[in-house]
Amino acid sequence: MSCTPLTPPDPNRRDTARSKRIQAADIAYNRPHPAQLNNCEERDYPYVANYSKGLQHDANGDVIPASYQSLLTALQNRTHSSFEAVQLGTPSGGLRLTNPQAGLAFTLEGPDPQALTQPPAPRIDSAQNSSEMAELYWMALARDVHFSNYGTDATIQQAIQSLNTEFTDFRGPKVNGQVTAQTVFRGIFPGETTGPYLSQFLWKGNSDPRAPDWQGRSAQDGFITYGVLKIDQRRWTVLPGTQSDFLTEYSWWLEAQNGVDKRGMDRFDMTQRRFIRNLRDLANFVHFDQVLDAFYNAALILISEPRGNQLLSSLRPLADIEFRNDVGNPYDPAPPRTPSRTQVGFATFGTTHVLTLLSEALIRALRAVWYQKWFVHRRLRPEEFGGRIHNHLTGRRLYPQINAQILNSLKTGKLAPYFGQAGERFPTYLLPQAYPEGAPTHPAYGAGHATGAGACATILKAFFHESQAIENPQVPTADGTKLMAYTGPGYNQMTVGGELNKLAGNIALGRNGAGVHWRTDYDQSLLLGETIAIQLLQEQSILFNEPDFFELRRFDGTCVRIQNGTVTACPVVYGTYPSAVGGVGGEIL
Question: What does pTM read for this prediction?
Answer without folding.
Answer: 0.96
